[in-house]
């Protein structure tokens, strides 16, 4: 048991609710503070454990509180529910957070640095931009389908087809439809330029980051996936092994076991969905060209495709990529492929 007191904080935008527990778990104090009062209050407390939910703004508060000398624990919100007693209110939420930190069974989230958050922000904005562009493409295809014009699927073919429709003055499109189509196409081109900027920004940062360069040596990792993995995992010290990193990304089988009988299902799909998708897409690219290489990893995945099918093999390879990625980051070394004997 921790010999120092534990402070649980229920984060909010304006009002923060705080509960202080003794080492034995007895409630010593509870307070309601406004945002500017939180750090001065903690600065006057003896050094101890400060527990927060890993929600919006938590990483900022973790850095500020760590600067005061406290040990900060960021706990996943979905695991706090089991510690909540009685009715749900802000004080009970803060007490549940403190008790969960004292219990010590929940793996804390490593506080992210400013650079990690900025890299993560870059990926989130790029992801939102891709989603907006995809919606525009689908919306425009549906609009033209109402007028009997069918556009082939695919982003590249969309741009070239719409440009050809606008250039052809004798295709019979009503002028109002042509006007609407032109505005959609201009928006598409503007977003395409934005995506090029994001791509170049990510690639530029990857070239200057030694950890990302080590990750790119792993089959299936490209500039985008290596940058996203780097911003997610940090230094990797929060995981004791590669399997823990793969489990945090939801790339391990869901387990439902009883009576000594183990039943494994599909993957859990917990954790960062964006990064998990990048790893699976990278694994598919590896499988596509695996027959041209003779190392053990690619030959293993080819045999797995024959035995279990393409999709299961892609997920299994993504799991292995996450494990190898953790080892590359935690040990600060490049991946060395093992040749088949």
Secondary-structure element series: EEEHEHEHHHHHHHEEHHH
What kind of sheet is the major sheet? 5 strands, mixed
Distance between the termini: 51 Å
Number of helical runs? 12
**Portion of residues within helices:** 40-55%
Radius of gyration, whole Å? 25 Å
Average pLDDT for all residues: 93
Strand proportion: 5-15%
Q: Biggest sheet, strands in spatial order?
A: 3-2-1-4-5
Q: Which structural class matches the secondary elements?
A: alpha/beta
> Low-confidence spans: pLDDT under 50, at least 5 residues?
none
Extended strand count:
7
How would the global form be characterised? globular
In short:
The chain is α/β, with parallel strands linked by helices. It has 12 helices and 7 strands.
């Amino acid at each position: 048991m921790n010999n120092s007191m534990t402070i649980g904080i229920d984060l909010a935008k304006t009002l923060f609710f705080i509960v202080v527990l003794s080492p034995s778990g007895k409630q010593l104090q509870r307070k309601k503070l406004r945002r500017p009062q939180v750090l001065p209050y903690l600065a006057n407390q003896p050094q101890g454990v400060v527990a927060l939910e890993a929600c919006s703004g938590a990483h900022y508060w973790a850095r500020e509180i760590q600067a005061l000398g406290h040990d900060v624990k960021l706990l996943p919100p979905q695991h706090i529910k089991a510690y909540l007693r009685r009715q749900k209110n802000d004080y009970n939420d803060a007490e549940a957070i403190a008790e969960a930190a004292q219990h010590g069974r929940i793996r804390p989230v490593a506080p992210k640095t400013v650079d990690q958050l900025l890299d993560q922000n870059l990926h989130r904005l790029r992801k939102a931009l891709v989603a907006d562009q995809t919606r525009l493409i689908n919306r425009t295809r549906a609009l033209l389908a109402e007028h009997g014009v069918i556009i082939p699927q695919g982003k590249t073919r969309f741009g070239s087809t719409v440009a050809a429709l606008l250039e052809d003055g004798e295709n019979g499109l009503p002028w109002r439809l042509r006007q609407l189509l032109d505005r959609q196409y201009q928006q598409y081109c503007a977003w395409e330029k934005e995506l090029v900027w994001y791509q170049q920004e990510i690639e530029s940062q990857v070239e200057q980051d030694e950890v990302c360069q080590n990750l790119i040596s792993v089959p299936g990792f490209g500039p985008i996936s290596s940058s996203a993995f780097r911003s997610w995992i940090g230094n990797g010290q929060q995981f004791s092994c590669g399997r823990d990193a793969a489990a945090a990304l939801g790339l391990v089988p869901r387990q439902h076991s009883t009576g000594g009988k183990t039943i494994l299902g599909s993957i859990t799909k917990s954790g960062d969905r964006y990064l998990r998708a990048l790893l699976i897409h990278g694994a598919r690219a590896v499988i596509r060209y695996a027959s041209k290489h003779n190392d053990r990893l690619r030959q293993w995945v080819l045999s797995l495709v024959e035995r279990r099918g393409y999709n299961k093999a892609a997920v299994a390879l993504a799991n292995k990529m996450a494990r190898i990625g953790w080892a590359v980051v935690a040990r600060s070394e490049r991946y060395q492929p093992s040749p088949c004997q």
